[in-house]
Amino acid sequence: MLSVSKISLTQFKNYSHRSFRFTSRIVGITGRNGSGKTNLLDAIYYLCFTKSYFSTAENQNVQYTMNGFRLEASLQRHQKEEKIVCTVKDGKKDVALNDESYEKFSRHIGQFPAVMIAPDDAEIILGGSEDRRKWLDALLAQLIPGYLDHLIAYHKILQQRNSLLKAMITMTHSPDPLLDVFDEQLVQHGVPVFEARKQFLETFIGKVQDRYDYLAGKHETVAFRYQSQLLEQPFAALLAANRLRDKQMQRTTQGIHRDDLLFLLDEHPMKTSASQGQRKSFLFALKLAQYEAIRAHKHFPPILLLDDVFEKLDQERVSRLITLVQGPDYGQVFITDTHGDRLRAAFADNPEVIQLISMQEE
Ligand SMILES: Nc1ncnc2c1ncn2[C@@H]1O[C@H](COP(=O)(O)OP(=O)(O)OP(=O)(O)O)[C@@H](O)[C@H]1O
């Protein structure tokens, strides 16, 4: 079992300094709009992933006018107490587990698995292919050792290759020998990422379908289609066949950085055909299936962070979700809501299972 028992936030977003103790398996966080509920979930996410779920720019996590923040948490993992500290000061980040700083943050990912379900997740369906890759990569990084390292290396080489393609016009010598080297490295790091994505998605859809049917209370067929240029030809051949085109376009046109996922509901694209309610159910199903995949892989349940679920799902779906997360397959769950009464009522059958924390209390 993995759980957070204590967290302290200093100069993190709207928090000057505040500590919280978590004493139950289910923690309800209540408070007005803008009181910092989501920011608290994000702090927990940050400690697990060494980055915010919401903000890509680190300075957005630092309290306005300050020059750094500190997050510290005590966690229980397999009956052992662990301490994680993340600090950012003057743009420099440090992450330490039990007082030992990481040289590579990627070593931390997957050790303290967590899944966030938040309003912005709609982008996974409605946004561009980058949003879907980001979701899939965050998931696979927790499951497959080395996945993140391959992905980071791939993107670094891709950037160098693209810079070379742009600089080519001003060059007096042929860029081909250097492109050969980059291509070899792209294949070396791109193929394992492609294989991991392909293999994972083949079986994952079954889990999503189960969760969708459970939440919706009826059966509608959901499906994915993994779209990758690497399904058509081996990567090395693709790069070779498109070199001239890449030179003309001044960028790398083929590769796993172009992968996408097509989500289907009853064989129609979810993005354009599904209703808002169907999309919401699908997103929850996707995230819950993600949770289960991680649990099955790690042999212990991840931390589940549920932001504003009551605003997103109808009462019937919320009550199915609440029943599910109280079950034996789930570990520590954090749920935010603006209404304490609504949260209390949702757990009326089992009130002792939930600890309620109000943002208004200091
Ligand atoms: N870098 C920052 N420095 C200071 N305050 C910040 C920073 N970033 C965000 N905030 C503040 O945090 C608050 C938002 O907090 P959060 O999103 O956690 O609220 P919430 O309780 O989840 O609200 P809602 O119920 O509307 O979802 C806003 O008042 C915002 O101004």
UniProtKB/TrEMBL annotation:
Q: Which UniProt keywords apply?
A: ATP-binding, Cytoplasm, DNA damage, DNA repair, DNA replication, DNA-binding, Nucleotide-binding, SOS response
Ranges for domain AAA+ ATPase: 23-358
Q: Which InterPro entries match?
A: AAA+_ATPase, DNA-binding_RecF, DNA-binding_RecF_CS, P-loop_NTPase, RecF/RecN/SMC_N, RecF_2
* One GO cellular component, as annotated: cytoplasm
Which GO biological process categories is it annotated with? Answer: DNA replication; DNA synthesis involved in DNA repair; double-strand break repair; SOS response
Q: GO molecular function, one example?
A: ATP binding
Residues that hold ATP according to the record: G31, R32, N33, G34, S35, G36, K37, T38
Superkingdom of origin = Bacteria
Could you tell me which Gene3D superfamilies the record lists for this protein?
A: P-loop containing nucleotide triphosphate hydrolases (3.40.50.300), RecF/RecN/SMC, N-terminal domain (1.20.1050.90)
Q: Where in the cell is it found?
A: Cytoplasm
Q: What does this protein do?
A: The RecF protein is involved in DNA metabolism; it is required for DNA replication and normal SOS inducibility. RecF binds preferentially to single-stranded, linear DNA. It also seems to bind ATP.
NCBIfam families this protein is in? Answer: recf
Q: List, alphabetically, the PANTHER family matched.
A: DNA REPLICATION AND REPAIR PROTEIN RECF (PTHR32182)
Q: What family is it from? A: Belongs to the RecF family.
What is the name attached to this protein's record?
Answer: DNA replication and repair protein RecF
What is the native source organism of this protein?
Answer: Chitinophaga barathri
Q: What taxonomic lineage is listed for the species of origin?
A: Bacteria, Pseudomonadati, Bacteroidota, Chitinophagia, Chitinophagales
